[in-house]
Design a protein that fits this description.
The complex is a heterodimer of chains A (161) and B (401). With 161 residues, chain A is an alpha+beta fold. Chain A contains 4 helices and 8 strands. Chain B is 6% helix and 39% strand. The chains are: A alpha+beta (161), B mainly beta (401).
Chain lengths: 161, 401
């Protein structure tokens, strides 16, 4: 279901992945947005899933395939901080677990919307300290959340998916 | 970080779900129909209306009425103000709108509850069975969700966000889900790991369960005796904002003289996701596009269109002047065609006349999906063929228009 950016070609993908180095390790880490990956213990039981880590130069990606079929990716800086999370699949993951200390600000911001015109549409929270975007419908949801000032300098937000 | 091994690039692509599928053909015709016919009343025709809804502030949503009955009795209640939703499957009714004591579904003698996640919130409440009368169609012992209950939602449900369990938060008296699927979660069952279905041994103790398809909240259309292979949503064109636009929800495709597929083009959908593909601005939204009358606008990424500045229209687009755009839809394996659409300034539209509720040019932001919401339906009869059913013109699930 994920799509490539416009203009991406197979050769560009191969080159990009080559630069990333595609290092895999079965690290039992599972952290929340803004949390410290080195100190937060795994909770694969929570998602009943399998996990792998993909390392890049300035960050790594921890990917959990949950039992319900939803893929969760956590983006971790080289210093071990989770700066972004993304998910895709039939049902959303546990957002309190995934967003950590950002869950309550997310709820507060979500409730502040729809104040005058109600409706059902994708959610976009774009605050200086937190971005949350959720979209889709039953059996096909996707979303991502990131902390803008924690992003590595070379990171394009389009890569968070 | 322990470097273990390096996998091939294609494995990485697969792991990330990247699709290298070729964008596919560029077939041509715009699909806006000039000779649209709205089916008048009939036994398989439910009247629908785009208006501001039960709360009076719902833009671009179609509402309808159904009658629910205690199973096997003539003790019935009409429920109006239900959102007509091609993006979900199953009937959901706010407990505050329901006075009838329906039959509670049980598991191990405990009542069954459902938590259905939507975008920023969820609906939580008991699964009950009802006999339904929708226009002249009937369905017996249909599992529905009653939204809102004194039983506390378990954290695995409430962690989805905010509860949409009142008229003011849901904006409707319920949702009439007439989408591509027969069940709301999946066939042959909904796994406990999805955290959708629960049995509750007390008002504070609920445990996820595996729910069989026959027990799941079910698209009522799939349970009709006839006209059960899908629906046609028929709304006339609107030249600009209007207070009310009325149309028809026709049951069955090719089952009666009034619901033929005709010259509509079939676009089949992925049987797992219910998505197809849209190409817009050079980007392929591959298996990430859908036609959803329950979304109140066109929602798609376009960084060139300014978002609206105020909380009146958060999430909507506010271009300086109306943008005329086009995109190409493509079925998973069949169907391709271009769609022309326009995006107007949502704040200007909302402010022009507070009584207006039907906005044919309303749109807003998305991230990686293309959501053809209610405005897509104006001036276009949209066929929704239900999975597992025989329908003319292709293999369901599909859309046709």
């Amino acid at each position: 279901m994920l799509k490539l950016q416009a203009g991406f070609t197979k050769s560009k993908i191969l080159a990009t992945l080559g630069v990333l180095g595609c290092l895999f390790a079965a690290l039992p880490l599972w952290a929340a947005l803004g949390g410290d990956a080195a100190t937060v213990q795994a909770d694969q039981v929570h998602l009943q899933g399998s996990l792998r880590t993909i390392a890049a130069q300035e960050y790594s990606v921890q990917e959990i395939q949950s039992a319900s079929g939803t893929t969760v990716r956590e983006y971790v800086t080289s210093s071990g901080k989770v700066f972004a999370v993304a998910w895709q699949g039939p049902w959303p993951p546990d957002l309190r677990q995934l967003l950590g200390s950002y869950f309550d600000p997310y709820i507060k911001a979500a409730r502040a919307q729809n104040s005058s015109r109600i409706g059902r549409r994708p959610l976009a929270i774009n605050q200086a300290g937190l971005v949350v975007q959720i979209e889709g419908h039953p059996r096909a949801y996707a979303g991502r959340a990131y902390v803008p000032n924690l992003l590595p300098s070379s990171m394009q937000v389009e890569a968070i998916r | 970080m322990k470097p273990l091994r390096c996998l091939g690039a294609f494995s990485v692509c697969a792991a990330f779900g990247f699709s290298l599928a070729c964008g596919g053909g560029s077939s041509s015709n715009s699909s806006s129909s000039s000779n649209q016919t709205i089916t008048p009343s009939g036994t398989n025709v439910l009247s629908i209306a785009v208006n501001s809804g039960p709360t009076g502030n719902y833009p671009d949503a179609a509402f309808a009425s159904v009658t629910v009955c205690i199973p096997g009795t003539s003790n019935c209640q009409a429920i109006n103000g239900l959102l007509v939703d091609t993006g979900s499957s199953g009937l959901r009714i706010l407990s505050s709108a329901l006075t009838l004591p329906l039959t509670q579904q049980t598991s191990n003698s405990n009542p069954v509850f459902e938590c259905l996640p939507f975008i920023s919130g969820y609906t939580w409440g008991p699964v009950q069975t009802a006999d339904l009368q929708i226009a002249g169609e009937t369905a017996s012992s249909v599992a529905i969700q009653v939204i809102g209950t004194s039983t506390t939602a378990p954290t695995s449900c409430s962690d989805n966000g905010t509860a949409d369990d009142t008229l003011s938060t849901l904006g409707t008296n319920g949702i009439l889900g007439v989408g591509l699927f027969a069940q709301d979660c999946g066939y042959p069952s909904c796994p406990a790991s999805a955290n959708l279905y629960y049995e509750c041994s007390s008002s504070t103790s609920c445990t996820p369960i595996t729910e069989t398809a026959a027990q799941e909240v079910t698209n009522p259309v799939a349970l009709f005796a006839t006209d059960n292979n899908g629906v046609i949503v028929e709304l006339p064109a609107a030249s600009g904002p209007e207070a009310t636009v009325t149309g028809s929800l026709v049951f069955g495709i090719g089952t009666q003289s009034n619901n033929a597929l005709g010259s509509a083009t079939v676009y089949n959908a992925d049987p797992s996701t219910g998505n197809f593909t849209t190409t817009f601005n050079g980007a392929d939204y591959n298996n990430a596009s859908f036609i959803d009358s329950g979304s109140n606008g066109y929602f798609f990424p376009d960084s060139s269109i300014p978002g609206c500045p105020t909380n009146i229209a958060v999430g909507f687009y506010c271009p300086n002047s109306t943008d005329n755009l086009s995109a190409t839809n493509q079925g998973i394996s069949v169907g391709s065609g271009m769609v022309n659409f326009s995006i107007a300034n949502a704040v200007t539209e909302f402010d022009d006349d507070p009584d207006d509720a039907a906005f044919p040019d309303l749109g807003g932001t998305a991230t990686n999906m293309f959501d053809w919401g209610l405005p897509f339906f104006f001036g276009r009869n949209v066929y929704v063929a239900i999975e597992g059913q025989s329908a003319p013109g292709g293999t369901a699930p599909y859309w046709a228009y």
